[in-house]
Amino acid sequence: MTDARVIDLHSPDGTRLALHDFGGTGDAVLLLPGLCGYAGEWSATAEWLVATHHVYALDPRGHGASQTRPGDVSREAHVADTVAALTRIGPVVLVGQSLGGHTAMLTAATRPDLVARLVLVEAGPKGGDGTADTIDRWLASWPVPFPDLATAAEFLGGGLVGPAWAGGLRQHPDGWRPVFERDVMVATVAGAHAPRWAEFARIDCDILLVRGSAGFMDADEFTRMAEHPKVTAVEVEGAGHDVHLDSPQQWRDALTAFLGR
What we know:
Blueprint: E1 5-10, E2 16-23, E3 28-32, H1 43-49, E4 54-59, H2 75-89, E5 92-97, H3 99-110, E6 115-121, H4 131-140, H5 149-155, H6 161-166, E7 169-172, E8 175-178, H7 182-190, H8 197-201, E9 206-212, H9 219-225, E10 231-236, H10 243-246, H11 248-259
Parallel strand pairs: 3-4, 3-5, 5-6, 6-9, 9-10
Antiparallel strand pairs: 1-2, 2-4, 7-8
């Protein structure tokens, strides 16, 4: 697994952020994880991507090694965090999965000078009421603390996905627990309920859109997004929501082809 150097940053509102530098040479890539995720989810991608690019990943506010309980979890705050990272490392290929993709999309619409290309994985502008309640019930179902990482990995999906998710847990005297707070995650996703089609429409850089056929992204949303003149749309057969984790070769093929254009 590729190790990363952690760079401490602060967002304009003072929130402490952790930017992970995986190294590499070439154009910069910034990777954004989804809700409840962390920068280390992208380690497998970084292992091969550092051969052609300088790879970074950001722990969003409330996630990973960034500040656990920020005062603001709005979409605007997450965009400001991403802009703070991009200001540090320069224009990038911006890659985001799920809620991280939503942040990446809004960042590209807001600061086109900082985003050379955009990659959205199981992420789009549709929004949706009720998502926060679903996430709240899902997090409430976690049998924390987990007695060990193997148990956590099995509960969190097994295969390649479960161990990656379990890697974001931290050991406590009573077992393994998430580093994030449940209420912060629920409030964070609640901010993404409004449709953002206008913002998506004004993005003017090349976009790679990746959907897992067994994921959460709505098929109609995927089809509508694919009509954007800058979009290259790829559907990975059999992949779930974490396409980059459970279908790593197909993910690598899609991203490599896009970056090599």
